[in-house]
Design a protein that fits this description.
- With about 350 residues, the protein is α/β, with parallel strands linked by helices.
- The chain folds into 2 domains: about 25-230, 3-Layer(aba) Sandwich (Rossmann fold); about 240-354, Rossmann fold (3-Layer(aba) Sandwich), CATH 3.40.50.40.
- The chain is about 30% helix and about 20% strand.
- The chain is built from 10 helices and 14 strands.
- The strands form 3 sheets. The chain has an 8-stranded mixed β-sheet with strand order 2-1-3-4-5-6-9-10. A 4-stranded parallel β-sheet has the order 11-12-13-14, sandwiched between helices.
- Helix 4 (about 120-130) runs parallel beside helix 9.
- The longest helix has 24 residues, at about 1-25.
- The chain is elongated and about 60 Å long.
- The chain starts with a helix and ends with a helix.
- Mean pLDDT is about 90; it is low at about 5-25.
C-alpha cells in the first residue's frame, strides 16, 4: 500500500510538473506594432509639459514593461514612429496589410498597436472595418510621454497585452485599452486635451475593464466589423480624398466648393446640432452632389445621432446622414465605402450597418 501511495504521488507530481510545463509553453503569442505617439514620446525632464512624440522605439517600450512576458510570448515591430497628428492614409494601408498578414499566421494569437491619442479614433475604426480576423487587435496610447513622472504608458501596454492574450477578447472587433478601460473602436472619443482619463464611450458604454491585467467584460460591440465587414483595402494603394468641413454660424459656403474643386470625392460636414448647416452651405452641398461628390452630414456635437430627413431633406439633397458616427469616423467610413460605390443610397446603408 505504501509502494502504491509513493507511486501514485510520483505520477501526480509528474502530472503537475508536465501540466505546468504545457501551460508555460501554451502562452499566447502577441505581436506589438509600434507607430509612435506620446506613448513613445520624450521630454527633457520628468515634469515639463512639452515633449516630442515618436522618439522611443518598440524594443524600449517592450523592455520598459518586462511583466508583459508573463502574460504572453512577445515580439515587436516598428511600423512607423510619428506623432499621430501625422498619421496618414499610407501608414493606415501599411498597418492594415501587416495586421492581416500577421493574424493569418497560426502562431500569432493577438496584436497590440501603440499609437498617439490624437487620431487613435480614426485608426482604430479604420482597422475595425478592414481587419479580416476575429483574433484580438488591441490599440493603446498614453497622455504622458515615456519620460514623464507617473507615465501612463507602461500600465496601458501591460493591460493591452493582457486583453490581446485573452481568448474572450476574440470577435469583439478592434479594441482600445487605456486607463483601465476597454473601448470599442466604433464608440469612443477623446474628450480632454490633457486629462489622462480623456477617452470616453459616451453613447454606448465600455466594452469592459482591465485592472492590472484582470479583464472584465461588459458587452460586445454591435454593427458589422472585422471578419464580418465586406470593406477591404487588399491591393489598394491609395484611398479617395474625403474632406471634413466644420460648420459654424454664417459659414463660408466656398469652403465646400473649394474641396470639390481640389479633387475631393467625398465631403463630411461637421454640422451644428443634428448635422444642420446654413442655407447657403446646403446649396453648396447640393451643387457638390450634382458633380458626383458624396456628402455625409455629421455633427460637431459630442454625442447623439444624426437622423435622416429630420431637419435637412436628405432625399431631396442627395446627402447621407452619419447616424452615430462623428466627423472623424464618418470620414474613415466614407473613404472605404467610396472604394465600392459612389451611390449615396448604398453608402447610407453602410452608415447604418457599420
Amino acid at each position: 500500500m505504501k509502494k502504491f501511495n509513493k507511486l501514485s504521488a510520483g505520477f501526480l507530481l509528474l502530472g503537475l510538473l508536465t501540466g505546468w510545463s504545457l501551460q508555460a509553453a501554451a502562452k499566447p503569442n502577441v505581436v506589438i506594432l509600434a507607430t509612435g505617439g506620446t506613448i513613445a514620446g520624450s521630454a527633457d525632464s520628468q515634469t515639463q509639459a512639452g515633449y516630442t512624440s515618436g522618439q522611443v522605439g518598440v524594443d524600449v517600450l517592450i523592455n520598459a514593461v518586462p511583466q508583459i512576458k508573463e502574460l504572453a510570448n512577445i515580439s515587436g515591430e516598428q511600423v512607423a514612429n510619428v506623432g499621430s497628428q501625422d498619421m496618414s492614409d499610407a501608414i493606415w494601408l501599411q498597418l492594415a496589410d501587416r495586421v492581416n498578414a500577421l493574424l493569418a499566421k497560426s502562431d500569432v494569437d493577438g496584436i497590440v498597436i501603440t499609437h498617439g491619442t490624437d487620431t487613435i479614433e480614426e485608426t482604430s475604426y479604420f482597422l475595425n472595418l478592414v481587419v479580416k480576423s476575429d483574433k484580438p487587435v488591441v490599440m493603446t496610447a498614453a497622455m504622458r510621454p515615456s519620460t514623464a513622472l507617473s507615465a501612463d504608458g507602461p500600465l496601458n501596454i501591460y493591460n493591452a497585452v493582457a486583453v490581446a492574450a485573452d481568448k474572450k477578447a476574440a470577435g469583439r472587433g478592434v479594441l482600445v485599452v487605456v486607463n483601465d478601460d476597454i473601448h470599442g473602436a466604433r464608440s469612443f472619443t477623446k474628450t480632454s486635451t490633457t486629462d489622462v482619463q480623456t477617452f470616453q464611450s459616451i453613447e454606448f458604454g465600455l466594452i469592459g475593464a482591465s485592472l492590472y491585467g484582470d479583464n472584465r467584460w461588459f458587452r460586445g460591440p454591435f454593427r458589422r466589423h472585422t471578419s464580418g465587414s465586406d470593406l477591404s483595402v487588399k491591393g489598394v494603394k491609395e484611398l479617395p480624398r474625403v474632406d471634413v468641413i466644420y460648420i459654424t454660424a454664417d459659414v463660408s459656403p466656398d469652403l465646400i466648393t473649394a474641396a470639390v474643386n481640389n479633387g475631393a470625392k467625398g465631403i463630411v460636414t461637421a454640422g451644428v446640432g443634428n448635422g444642420n448647416m446654413t442655407g447657403a452651405a446646403l446649396e453648396a452641398v447640393k451643387a457638390a452632389v450634382k458633380k458626383g461628390v458624396v456628402v455625409v452630414r455629421a455633427s460637431r456635437v459630442t454625442s447623439g445621432t444624426v437622423g435622416r430627413n429630420v431637419e435637412v431633406n436628405d432625399d431631396e439633397a442627395g446627402t447621407v446622414a452619419s447616424a452615430e458616427h462623428n466627423p472623424g469616423r464618418s470620414r474613415v467610413l466614407l473613404k472605404l465605402a467610396l472604394l465600392k460605390t459612389s451611390d449615396p443610397k448604398k453608402i447610407q446603408e453602410y452608415f447604418y450597418s457599420y
